[in-house]
# Entry
Amino acid sequence: MSSLREVGVAMLGYAFMGKAHSHAWRDIPLFFWPPPAIPRLVTIYGRSGERVREAALRYGYRRYTTDWRQAVKDPEVEIVDNGLPNNMHRDPCIEAMEEGKHIVCEKPLARNASEAMDMRDVARRTGVKAMCAFNYRFVPAVMLARRLIEDGVLGRIYHFRAHYLQDWIVDPSFPLVWRLRVEDAGSGALGDLGSHIIDLARFLVGEVKAVNGVTRTFIEERPLESDPSKRGRVTVDDAFAATLEFENGAIGTLEASRFATGHKNYNCFEINGEKGSIEFNLERLNELRMYIVGEKATEGWREILVTESDVHPFIRAYWPSGHIIGWEHTFVNELYHFLRCLVEDKPIEPYGATFEDGYRCAEVCDAIIESARMGRRMEIVYR
Amino acid sequence: MSSLREVGVAMLGYAFMGKAHSHAWRDIPLFFWPPPAIPRLVTIYGRSGERVREAALRYGYRRYTTDWRQAVKDPEVEIVDNGLPNNMHRDPCIEAMEEGKHIVCEKPLARNASEAMDMRDVARRTGVKAMCAFNYRFVPAVMLARRLIEDGVLGRIYHFRAHYLQDWIVDPSFPLVWRLRVEDAGSGALGDLGSHIIDLARFLVGEVKAVNGVTRTFIEERPLESDPSKRGRVTVDDAFAATLEFENGAIGTLEASRFATGHKNYNCFEINGEKGSIEFNLERLNELRMYIVGEKATEGWREILVTESDVHPFIRAYWPSGHIIGWEHTFVNELYHFLRCLVEDKPIEPYGATFEDGYRCAEVCDAIIESARMGRRMEIVYR
Amino acid sequence: MSSLREVGVAMLGYAFMGKAHSHAWRDIPLFFWPPPAIPRLVTIYGRSGERVREAALRYGYRRYTTDWRQAVKDPEVEIVDNGLPNNMHRDPCIEAMEEGKHIVCEKPLARNASEAMDMRDVARRTGVKAMCAFNYRFVPAVMLARRLIEDGVLGRIYHFRAHYLQDWIVDPSFPLVWRLRVEDAGSGALGDLGSHIIDLARFLVGEVKAVNGVTRTFIEERPLESDPSKRGRVTVDDAFAATLEFENGAIGTLEASRFATGHKNYNCFEINGEKGSIEFNLERLNELRMYIVGEKATEGWREILVTESDVHPFIRAYWPSGHIIGWEHTFVNELYHFLRCLVEDKPIEPYGATFEDGYRCAEVCDAIIESARMGRRMEIVYR
Amino acid sequence: MSSLREVGVAMLGYAFMGKAHSHAWRDIPLFFWPPPAIPRLVTIYGRSGERVREAALRYGYRRYTTDWRQAVKDPEVEIVDNGLPNNMHRDPCIEAMEEGKHIVCEKPLARNASEAMDMRDVARRTGVKAMCAFNYRFVPAVMLARRLIEDGVLGRIYHFRAHYLQDWIVDPSFPLVWRLRVEDAGSGALGDLGSHIIDLARFLVGEVKAVNGVTRTFIEERPLESDPSKRGRVTVDDAFAATLEFENGAIGTLEASRFATGHKNYNCFEINGEKGSIEFNLERLNELRMYIVGEKATEGWREILVTESDVHPFIRAYWPSGHIIGWEHTFVNELYHFLRCLVEDKPIEPYGATFEDGYRCAEVCDAIIESARMGRRMEIVYR
# Structure
């Protein structure tokens, strides 16, 4: 046991994602015992020296830096984990890969398909392990959904409908944060929330053939963060809606919004197939609802509590049945998967999302924006 | 009391809608006491002489006929209630109105906007009371939703999302019934189910400005009813999905399907506004879910059991609180509303749907079909 | 068809139960076609001449009377349906049976086991059809529950837990109505609500062996109906709770209250067996929740929408699947069952409740009161 | 920051509770930053040398031992955390307290009230911080419930009803583990599960005055763990049910079972008060359902998602709203509370459970057993 391999990790970013990923790296050995390797928290990067120093202490990194290139080149580091804002995805990831580091990058992979394609190309060329951190694939209930579909339990798929709803900017006095500026974020609800459900659509149903979308910016100006007495322009979508055509003939609807009052982190989807249907909602992430055609008198939507350690994916690591896990465990599962693939030299896909997946998701996002602008159906072309 | 006015009713059709409407006419006086008038069940029309004779006995009509013109012209009749298939909506309704009869017509008002416009024009010219029987407006929970929105409880509306899901033709061996042939039905899931949610969109949120849709026919051939060894072509949509833009700036998604395994009569909608949201589902029609921004620590989606006789619309007629009503009571409420408007000479709108509403709904349906065919956004033009 | 037998009905009482039963008698032929017989609404009894005259007109009775003996002896009457307050159950029922009339009596059968035993004895001696109107047996979901248990789907039963919760007298200014006086009602929440769940316990699980209860009267004095400036003593229980031991070894809990804020007509039960469990709630009476031990990865509580006309009990009479029925239909089903048993001369039991069932339920109620008074477990002795 | 105090912890037990507590001690600083102190994982005790060595490595303890006395006396240790089986609660806790160590002990505090009283007495005499680890008090939704009741939001309380249901021993071939033997566990479902809901009853509603219970052992013999071909006697209850009388006049029902098929960790309670009601279920631990009397047209049971970091208790430490936490976080919250009380020298109560609370809970458990044995109501006497 004492001979467990250690793998050095550099974390880029100390805020929301920095906390979630750091926590996950730390928890892997406790839950997945014996772990494929022990993550060694080597260094953390952040813009503010004071805050990154505190983050290093809090999360347990040995070093910290305000120069991301330093973190990326650190010789003790094998994995670079990028949790920075979207405009800081491409360059650090590419430089890390060029240094031969394995890479985890938060979603959306980049601000648009062009940037994402650059990253995908470097990943392909360097051959490092590169994962786009679509963590909701690693919700046990979602992984069970995937398995059920793969096993043909639902039969031919007819419908996919997903919406990812939040309400944190309904108040017009909420400030113009980076997520509301196109140069930083690339897009709004679409890239932030929509990318998750586009990835789930591809993960669960298959490749997207065409889209038709509409976007809205309901509140067009907001107070500046630096000086609330001044206002600046919101340059991303507050919400979008789209119809979806899959290559396999299924159709779907997609919707994401930051103006859906009453929904906090409501990422839900439903899939209808010829033999059955499934439904999921992230606010009750331990549950999968399923309907299977069978004995007619007792057919019904069943709530599967996805906490059975001997049969449900990724749950064995945790607690006895009925003892639910939380949102943060999606990261523990995801980074565990990455670590295992790295140590055992196995592909990230099909269960983890690659940079190819991240790129394809970006193409769908771009097509939705273009379709909304032009008022017409866009076929997706992957390059 | 004994001086209660009687109003003669002719029913066209004895099947599903014939049963639902007949039952409702009979129940009005028992529940809404004293009633505006006593419906007198004069005559019922149907194609099969034997079956219409039995229907007359069962439902309590004094006469029956296999000639709809006879029913429509019957001098004892003041109200003609048309529950026939969609291809039998225009002519009997127009002839009834020309005879000076008041008219109730099942939805969709016609097979397409052109037919519906004809009917609307005659209604306008003759000045009879003419209602398109969008009965789901008369679910107490839906009427409460309307009242809350009118009262500004939700504030500015941002989102509408509705789907009406059924699964009764998932089995490919299900026969080619009239609802699956364009010449009889006009359209498939769109006209049958979609028309309901389009009407609710207009009733609750406002006029539709543009649509963008996709349709699918998943099973293209089915056994003939007359000879199951032969197959015929399904000429309507099995399902559709569309995005919606409202004149007031809100956006939405619409979807209807007869291939949504596990859903029997799942007509649901959700509306998000700046101050709150509401949600409804016809399979739990006594409930309205509502979220209102307020005291943050105790905000939450609340399940309003819409059975409080002293405060909820149309429920006083029935039972003490918590004693739920069923699907059939939407018809009792709707026809009671019609009868009251007739006797008191008040307009059907805004709570009941007029032929103008029926026509506008048909324009939206047609635009969805056209948009799906052309792959582009269609603006709605009302004539 | 024109040769359908007619059966004359006399209704005792025009209020809540008078309305519910009258409506049901009228609806039987429309829904259950062809009906076993056509109920002929002959006469209705009530204390107030003016109100009973109006009720006769509203519900469709040919005659009315303020002398119950006249109704009970009416030669055109074959069925006497007693919907009067509990203190008016024994004498009219006994006199009707002595006249050879068949009898339906609202629950609880009487104010106590002694009265109920008298009624049971006369029913036994005269051999008329005698049903205690425990209408919740006739909820399709409850009837399905019974069938599942009979078929062994749940295996050996371990647990029964039921509560029937309302909140209509939480306000201390609510007046001292008849239901709050022991001389009229016999008991409070126990007889009114508890009797329903005791009957369901016996119907679904089996005979009760022993009970242990506690009762409470939270508000001890209330304004008089006749003069709200004066107050009178509440002489029944506002709520009770009890543990239950069944003869088959299962244990259970029972609870009923009129002080359960937020519950309007919340009659729910859950049954746990070795192979599965079921759960029901009257406010969602079209649904039965069921859990069956099976394939572990996809086990879950399923919501069965009990509206499938070809497989679910008593639902064929109504609408296509997913079109829910309401509370009132329990009466249509129940009285249809009674009418069919009468015409076909079959026993009311085991699906309908007999006067023996009504009597046994009263013994359990009396034992709960006695146990609460004495602070000890009471074994039930049926005589 | 580097001057943060460290507090040494000794863990007794490495199994289920050892894992949950160790994880929590590790996570405190990451979530509750800055922490009151940094828990230093000094040593862990377990019976099996090999397994305790691995546990030390996995959880991060510096030392391990197979002699609990060594752990308890370790001079680097300030806190002893006892997660051993119930028969190993009294002696190690007492010895730790005599050594001046602060103490956390898993629930139930002991096998019976007599043992628990011994522990309570030593805690009182030594004055160390002593917490009985009723972790469900530290579910944010439960803490919110407590706050709402304290603030009078529900008004006078009428009803408490709780059941804690599991199904892990329904299979008769499940072996005779320590939890099924009276000498190890003290009692069965009662002490294991019932103690949680008794503690919640006391925490939320108030002191218990009297109980009336029934217990059952459905499967009386089971295979031995050591030799499955032999069978041994189950000497604890598989399930119990009880009625409850509170000192404040409220009544309640309690039930716990390991035979409630379909329930995995279903710890639920409902409380009805004059102004409102609340409901909770551990399988959806991020939600609290609440009904408040208000505007009648829009009253309803609301689902409060208890994840608002600025208003909900103990949730600020985690994630943005809607990002749910899991079962394990109850321990993080609880041990954080303990650590803070220790460092700031504040009392554990009223939010944490003391050894007095643990003792009182044991008295209620003992009274339920006695009441079931004697068939009569038992008043609780606290000594």
Notes: The first strand of chain C starts at residue 6 and ends at 12. Chain C has a mean pLDDT of 97.
